[in-house]
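Structure representation:
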Amino acid sequence: MSSPAQFRIHEPVPVRESPRTAALYLTGSREGFAQAREFTRRTLDCWSLERCTDDAVTVVTELAANAVLHALPHTSTDEFHVRLRLTLRRAHLVCAVTDPSDSLPVHARTADDLLEHGRGLRIVEALSEHWGWTRRPPVGKTVWAMLPTHSRPGPYLILDT
């Protein structure tokens, strides 16, 4: 099993930002994951989306881990780029991670909760309204998840009077 800390460390570089989009180049290190989580927290705080923070941080961590663990080792270049992009839409927060691999994400179909790996996309699926991937020509892909920004209605309790 390889550890993200074994990859070459690159300084994260902020990329173009707008009031509704924030992006960051990630490193393949444990520090890079910590920076991605902190970047997500700060961005959602600026957008007054604190209610989405826990789910968004979890989704970002899973998507970034998949890119670093599965996509980067299979690239043929010394220079790799994994980019995290957060986009605020009217009713959704889109968390997207772009990597240089053409290999599509594998959604494990196992129900074994004791396995150490293979549950990341199941977690993303559980926390998001929609998720998927898009090929990025000439190479690479973006794996994304859409989280609702509005509060979900809870179950109603009907009292008999």
